[in-house]
Each structure stands twice: as C-alpha cells, then as structure tokens.
Inverse folding.
C-alpha cells in the first residue's frame, strides 16, 4: 500500500479548503440573486435613506454585512412564509445605526421564527449572526429560502402528485415523504417519459453529467427544449446549454455549470424546486398512468386529513422538529406511527423514564413491522399514563393506524413539556397551569396604568382572543417593548388575528 507524504496530505487538505470556499462563494451569489429578485419591490429595503439594503452585491462581504441586523432576514422569512414575522416588532435604525443589543434582539426573532416555520437551526446563536459567522449566516439563509421553495411541494397544493405513488403505496406514505424525496420522484417520473432506463436517487452524483437535466427539460417544456445537449461531450458546454434553456423559460438559475458538475446539493435542490414550481407538468394524458382506483389510494370520508394539514397539526409537527430529533417529521400520522420518535420525546419530558431495553428500533423487518410498531405505541400510552395524561379510549393501535386521537396525546406531551420549563426559582418544583394563570393575573392587577383590565379565568377565556392580556404581560415584563400606538382594540376576528401576530413576534 502506497504511503502518503505529509506534503501530499497538506496539499490535499488545502485543495479541500479551496473547494469549500468556492462552494460557499457560489452559494452566496445564488442567494444574493434570489433575494434581489424576491424583495426588489420592498420599499424599506430599496428606498431607505439611512441604510440601503438592496440590491445586494455579489462581490465581497456586502451580503453578510446586510443580514447582520436581522431586518433583511425577517423580510425574507415573510417572503417564504407570509405572516410569520410582525415587522412592527423589529428594531429599526432611525438617527443612528442599531447597537449590538438591538441587533441581537432582531436575530433572536429571526432564529425563533425560522424554527416556527420548520427550519432546522442547530448550534446557531444570535451572536453568530450579528458577529458575521459566514457559515452560520449562509445556513440560516438557505433554510429560509428552502422553506419558501418547498412550501407548495405537497398534495394539498398539487393533487397531481398522487401520480408519483409506487405500486401498493398509500397516500399517507406519500405524504410522509420530504419535499426532496418528492422532487426525486418527480424528476424520475418525467425522465421515464423521455428515456425509461434512466433514473436518479439524489441531486449530487446522479445529476453531475447533465443527462437528468436534459431529459427533465425535454419532458416539462418540449416546445422550447430538446436533447441536443447530450451530443455535447464537453461537460461545461453541455451545462451552459442547459442553463440557457432555464433562462429561456424564465427560471432563476440557482446553479452554474460548476455547481452541477461538482454536485452542489443545496443549489441543485433549489434549482429543481424552481423548475417544479414553474412547470410541475403533472397532468397525465395516458389513461394507463392515471390512478382512478380511489380505494387503492385509501380515499374515504377522511380524505381531507391526507391533503389538509390543520394549524394544530402543524404546531405539533414544528414543536417536535424543534427538539431536533431524527427522523425529521414531515407528516405526523405516518412519521409517528412506529412510536419510536414519541419514545424519544418522552425521554425529554422526564429524562430516564424510558427503558431503552423495551424500545423496538426501526427499521423493522416486513413481517415484524406491525407487531414492533404497535408495541412501541403501547409503551407510549403506558408512559403517558405514568405522567398523569388523560388517555381514556386511546390505544397504541390508534397511533399506528394514524387516528386523530394521536393529537390528544401530542397536546398533553407539549403541555407537559412547556410547564416543565417553568419552576419555582432555583427549585425543581414545577408550576401547574392554574399557578401560571394566577401569576399572570397578579402581574396584570399590579400594573398601575392598565389596572388589570385584561385578567382571564383560564386559557379558554374568550377575552384572550384580543391578545390584549398577552401584550400587557410582555410590556410589564419588559417595559416599553410594546408600541401601543400600533395596536387597536380588536373588534372583529380579522382584526384580532392581525393583532395576535404582534405578541407572538415580540415573544420570539
């Protein structure tokens, strides 16, 4: 076996570092172009006399400097998932630049809002964003852009995705797939229409020669593209031809020829998501390819639960994902049916309560799948009972079958987790829900200005719908944090909903 000299090892390391820097630079340029396009009509970012954010410059560190104060990122979050951030809660520069503390507050809001829209923010602190840690900044920007690109890659927005079902697969299984998994299937579906022996499994190695892109373009835009790039033997020239197709179709190029050849997974994923959003092309004319057997797809009176994720379900899903467990939860009923992730959560609720010897760890063998999954789910019910949950009529089999009763268990788990974060000073004694209500009302009554106008009996009290009690509490805890000139008394559900965004944003 040939040994490697120190000089060769150093050179190899230096080459790797250079490649990493080039990748980061390419990602930065792609993100700059996306932000400039998406936010070009925002008057504050483009016309502000004090600090002009846009257009961002592709050269140098202008991009990193402009996202330090959190304002640009907050607006990008709202572009990806509208209504996520109430921009009234942001600190804005007026007569002088924001100080370090104000920028930290904005970045706190940014990171917590990222978690709320389903981004995975791991080991990134507000200080990293303000201090200009480039890798952290790029990671957060990518997560936010990804959230926007993937927001509509689901069965609710595109019912035609049902055509991607494999033989014997249920709609629930398809719903549990990540947007990236659905995009891989979508690419393969269209490739089969042009060349039935070509398939891909990922967006790095399998797309590096450009063949997949060529077949995909030909399938989704046959009038404007063709297979001519395959005749080009020089890879860079082939990629140039493909990206020219994208420009002709008015699709923003997230990638350069180098990104495709090197297999940059982030930028290729973003580019393919762009193509999907612009040209899904899921209308199938061939009767043999259509799925008309609704029984096979498990369509019944509960069809809506497959297509429409309620706000309650989304809240539980985001809460579970905020705990940074693996696997990532895309669809509650399918991803939790084996009970494994729920058992991990129980171990967070009360560390050490889960006996690891009693857990069945997936993946399971086909013949043992149901038995091991239901056994895990039954163990979840047992643990819930130990924590005092009300689980009358709920069995492990209900969790495995994707019954809505799962929501009752999740609600009690999230409630227990939230209350477990609140203790009496330095003691380990946990507060109860009633004690939290009493503390809130005591604070509200002690305020000399508001004089307890918005006290409430319980968390179902209709007075909470106006959000006034929450706004008052936040302002009592941190005086001056609520600008009451921006808040009108809610008189209709729409006005109340608009006001509610403010305390949520300030709290973040």
């Amino acid at each position: 076996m040939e040994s490697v000299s120190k000089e060769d090892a150093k050179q190899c390391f230096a080459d790797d570092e250079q490649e990493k820097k080039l990748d980061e630079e390419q990602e930065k340029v792609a993100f700059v172009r996306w932000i400039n396009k998406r936010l070009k009509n925002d008057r504050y970012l483009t016309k502000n006399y004090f600090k002009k954010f846009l257009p961002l410059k592709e050269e140098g560190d202008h991009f990193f400097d402009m996202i330090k104060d959190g304002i640009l990122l907050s607006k990008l979050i709202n572009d990806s998932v509208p209504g996520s951030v109430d921009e009234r809660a942001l600190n804005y520069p007026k007569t002088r630049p924001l100080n370090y503390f104000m920028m930290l507050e904005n970045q706190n809001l940014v990171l917590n809002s990222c978690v709320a829209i389903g981004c995975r923010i791991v080991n990134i602190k507000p200080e990293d964003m303000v201090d200009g840690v480039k890798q952290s900044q790029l990671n957060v920007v990518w997560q936010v852009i990804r959230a926007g690109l993937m927001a509509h890659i689901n069965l609710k927005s595109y019912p035609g995705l049902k055509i991607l079902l494999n033989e014997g697969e249920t709609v629930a299984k398809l719903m549990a797939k990540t947007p990236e998994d659905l995009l891989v299937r979508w690419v393969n579906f269209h490739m089969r229409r042009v060349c039935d022996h070509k398939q891909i499994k990922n967006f790095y190695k399998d797309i590096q020669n450009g063949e997949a892109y060529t077949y995909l373009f030909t399938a989704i835009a046959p009038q404007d593209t063709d297979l001519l790039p395959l005749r080009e033997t020089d890879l860079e020239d082939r990629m140039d031809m493909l990206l020219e197709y994208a420009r002709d179709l008015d699709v923003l190029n997230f990638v350069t020829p180098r990104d495709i050849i090197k297999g940059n997974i982030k930028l290729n994923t973003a580019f393919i998501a762009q193509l999907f959003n612009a040209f899904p092309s899921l209308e199938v004319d061939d009767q043999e390819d259509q799925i008309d057997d609704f029984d096979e797809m498990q369509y019944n009176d509960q069809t809506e639960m497959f297509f429409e994720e309620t706000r309650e379900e989304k809240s539980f899903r985001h809460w579970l994902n905020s705990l940074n467990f693996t696997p990532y939860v895309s669809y509650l009923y399918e991803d939790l049916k084996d009970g494994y992730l729920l058992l991990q959560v129980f171990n967070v609720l009360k560390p050490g309560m889960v006996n690891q010897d009693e857990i069945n760890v997936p993946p399971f063998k086909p013949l043992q799948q149901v038995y091991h999954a239901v056994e895990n789910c039954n163990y979840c019910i047992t643990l819930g009972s130990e924590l005092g949950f009300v689980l009358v009529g709920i069995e492990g089999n209900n969790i495995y079958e994707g019954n809505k009763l799962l929501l009752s268990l999740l609600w009690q788990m999230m409630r227990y987790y939230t209350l477990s974060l609140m203790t009496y000073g330095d003691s380990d004694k946990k507060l109860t829900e009633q004690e939290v209500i009493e503390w809130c009302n005591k604070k509200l009554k002690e305020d000399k200005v508001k004089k307890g106008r918005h006290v409430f009996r319980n968390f179902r009290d209709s007075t909470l719908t106006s959000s006034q009690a929450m706004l008052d509490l936040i302002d009592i805890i941190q005086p001056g944090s609520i600008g009451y000139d921006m808040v009108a008394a809610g008189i209709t559900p729409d006005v109340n909903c608009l006001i509610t965004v403010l305390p949520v944003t300030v709290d973040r």
About this structure: The chain has a mean pLDDT of 84.
